[in-house]
Fold this protein.
Amino acid sequence: MPYVDLNSDLGEGFGTYRCGDDEAMLAIVTSANVACGLHAGDPEIMARTFTIARERGVAVGAHPGFPDLWGFGRRRLPFSTGEIERLIAYQIGAATALAAYAGHRISYVKTHGALGNIACEERDVADAVVRAVRAVDRNLPLLGIALTELVAAGDALGLEVIQEIYADRGYTETGQLIPRGQPGAMIEGAEEAAARVLAMVEAGAVITASGKHLPTPIRSVCVHGDSSHAVATASRVRGVLEQAGVTLRPFVSSGK
């Protein structure tokens, strides 16, 4: 059976405030999407997260979002596509610098929260995201939610796109994430999440809330790092995949 990557959004505290258990998650995941200071994170947290990831052989990516600390980057803000391009370029630059400072390297980009959701739905925003990544470093892969406009935009503009599924989120009948706050949006049981991930990986498809299978390549699985059950879910997902003979490793080299 082919390998898959296990990723999580980390480094999402700010100052003295902590969000999730990054050290525990970095002992489980193979890739870490690190907040770049606008929706969460700061230079101290970024450097520390990159250092631990380097020590544990975990690949790291820039995780840019809207400049919205109050809303954790999960509010839809009215930025133009040009502004979005520059916001993303700015955050990739910050992540690249702090990763280098920690002796690591940024090896992919994954958009966060509302910015990522909009890019998955609206092609002009997806194109802006891809243009920003390509302008900074056309060799950086884009980690994106499977079956979305972001994947299509990356493919169209020649960027390598890594398609991911979510362990802890439900899917609509078109393969989009069920919006937070709606029934079925969040999968909070570790056993249920792990079983769903294995079923999707084995089927090579996103499985919707009704059980419909939407075929897609699956190269990475995401577990959100900010929930109270993140460590248990990530650990169980990894365990179930490995028990089924699936190799867990980064989709890119974790070395500098």
Remarks:
- The beta strands are 5-10, 31-35, 59-63, 106-109, 142-145, 161-166, 205-207, 213-215, 220-222.
- Residues 81-101 form the longest helix (21 residues).
- The mean pLDDT is 96.
